[in-house]
Amino acid sequence: MKITEEKLQEQELKAKFQDASQLGFGRIFTDRMFTMRYANNEWTEAKIEKYKNFTLDPSACVFHYSQEIFEGMKAYAAEDGRILLFRPEQNVRRMNNSAARLVMPTIPEEDMLQAIEELVLAEKNWIPRAAGTSMYIRPTMIATEAFLGVHPSAEYTFFVILSPVGAYYKGGFQPVKLYVEDTFVRAAVGGVGDIKTGGNYAASLMAGYRAQQKGFSQVLWLDAKERKYVEEVGAMNMFFVYGNKLVTPALSGSILPGITRASVLELAKHLGLTAEERTISIDEVIEDIATGAITEAFGSGTAAVISPVGSLTFKEKEYVINNNQVGPNTQHLYDTLVNIQYGRQEDPFGWVKEI
Ligand code: PLP
Ligand code: COI
C-alpha cells in the first residue's frame, strides 16, 4: 500500500496510527527513501528522494541469482519528543558482514548510519506514537548489473525504506504456537544462514506456509545435518527459560546473530538471571517442557521484539509451555527492553542513540 502524507491526514489513517494492531507490519511506507548507486568501484548519487519504483534491466543479477542483502531496525518516538534508534551501529556492521559474504561492496559504517539517520529525521512525522508502534527501517542492497553469467555484479543499488509498524504477530504480545520443522531446513553451516539475505527467507517459505495453514505462527528450525538441534525461528532467535536461567542456541554458523538476542543476553545478566549459549537438542527441549524444567520460552527480534512462545508442536504432538501464558521473566525482559528502546527507562548499556 502506498499512502502519501496528504492522505495520512485522513481520519481513517490517523486512527490506524493510534492502534498498533491496526497498523500491522510492513504494509505502509513513507513518502521518501534513501538511494545510492555503486558503479566503477565507488558509491555515488547518494540522495533522499520520493519513494518510487525502480527501473531495472530484466537480466539484473538480483533477479536471477539473489545477490541481495538487507537489515531490519527501528526508530522509536519517546514521550518527550526524542527520536531514538536502538544499537544502530550493530545493524550497520551486520549489513557490511552480509555484503562481504555475498561479494558485495561494503559502505563506510558512518556513511550508512548517516544515510539512515537523515532519512528517519526527514520522515519523522511518520513515526507513530501509539503504544507498541515504531518506525521499521529496512536498509537493502541489490545487484543491478545486467548479465546472466554467475559472478558478482559490478553495480549495486543501496536503498533505505521506512514503514510505520505495530506488532509483528497479529495477536500482539500473546504467546505464539510454533511448529518444529523436521523435514525442511532453513540453512546449513557453511551457507548463508548467518547473514541477512533474501534467499534464506525464500528457502523458509514452504515450511512457513504449511505451518501457517495448520494454524501455527512460525516454524522452529532444526539444524540441517541431523535435524536434532534447535536453531531459530523464521524471524527471531529462540530462548528457553529454566527458572532464573536463560538458554539460547549457540551461534552455530547457520543462525542469524540477532542484535535483540545479544541484548537479551546482556539484559538478563543485568537483571540477575543467568544466561547460557549452547547447543540444545529438540529432544532435550520437549523433555524439559514435559517435566516442567522449562518454565517459559520466547523469541527475540527487531520486528518480533520479545514474543512469548506458548507451545511447540513436534511430530504431531503439542508441548504447552507455562499453560500458554506469558511468564514472569519474559514479561520482565520485554518491559525492560521496550522501556529502554522508548527512552522510558535509564539505559545503562548506552544502546539507545538519540538522533
Ligand atoms: N533470526 C532471523 C532469521 C531474523 O530474520 C531476525 C530478524 O532480524 C532475527 C533472528 C532477529 O535478529 P535481530 O534481533 O537482529 O532483529
Ligand atoms: C527483523 O526483525 O528486522 C526482521 O528482519 C524480521 C523480518 C524478516 C520481518
From TrEMBL:
It is an enzyme of class 2 (transferase). It catalyses: L-isoleucine + 2-oxoglutarate = (S)-3-methyl-2-oxopentanoate + L-glutamate; L-valine + 2-oxoglutarate = 3-methyl-2-oxobutanoate + L-glutamate; L-leucine + 2-oxoglutarate = 4-methyl-2-oxopentanoate + L-glutamate. PANTHER family: BRANCHED-CHAIN-AMINO-ACID AMINOTRANSFERASE (PTHR11825:SF44), SUBGROUP IIII AMINOTRANSFERASE (PTHR11825). One of its GO terms (biological process) is L-leucine biosynthetic process. Keywords: Amino-acid biosynthesis, Aminotransferase, Branched-chain amino acid biosynthesis, Pyridoxal phosphate, Transferase. Its cofactor is pyridoxal 5'-phosphate. GO terms for molecular function: L-isoleucine-2-oxoglutarate transaminase activity; L-leucine-2-oxoglutarate transaminase activity; L-valine-2-oxoglutarate transaminase activity. InterPro entries: Aminotrans_IV (IPR001544), Aminotrans_IV_CS (IPR018300), Aminotransferase-like (IPR036038), B_amino_transII (IPR005786), BCAT-like_C (IPR043132), BCAT-like_N (IPR043131), BCAT_family (IPR033939). This is Branched-chain-amino-acid aminotransferase. Pfam families: Aminotran_4 (PF01063). The modification N6-(pyridoxal phosphate)lysine is found at residue 196. Pathway: Amino-acid biosynthesis; L-leucine biosynthesis; L-leucine from 3-methyl-2-oxobutanoate: step 4/4; Amino-acid biosynthesis; L-isoleucine biosynthesis; L-isoleucine from 2-oxobutanoate: step 4/4; Amino-acid biosynthesis; L-valine biosynthesis; L-valine from pyruvate: step 4/4. CDD domains: BCAT_beta_family. Its EC number is 2.6.1.42. Gene3D superfamilies: 3.30.470.10, D-amino Acid Aminotransferase, subunit A, domain 2. Belongs to the class-IV pyridoxal-phosphate-dependent aminotransferase family.
